[in-house]
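Sequence, please.
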């Protein structure tokens, strides 16, 4: 699960066409793929589900 906050706003996604909890809001989340780190999963799920690119900023991640 990824919780992104920027300018006092939190990114939520609305589930659709998944067959599970459609219409509900939640944070970008997903499964770790083979040969993928937890952080790589966070980055690709945030882009895939939330349309947000993330970049590394010192030791933290932030929405680009």
């Amino acid at each position: 699960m990824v919780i992104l906050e920027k300018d006092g706003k939190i990114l939520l996604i609305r589930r659709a066409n998944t067959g599970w909890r459609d219409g509900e809001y939640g944070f970008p989340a997903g499964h770790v793929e083979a040969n993928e780190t937890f952080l790589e999963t966070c980055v690709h799920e945030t882009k895939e589900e939330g349309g947000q690119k993330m970049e590394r900023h010192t030791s933290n991640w932030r929405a680009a």
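The chain has one domain: 5-63.
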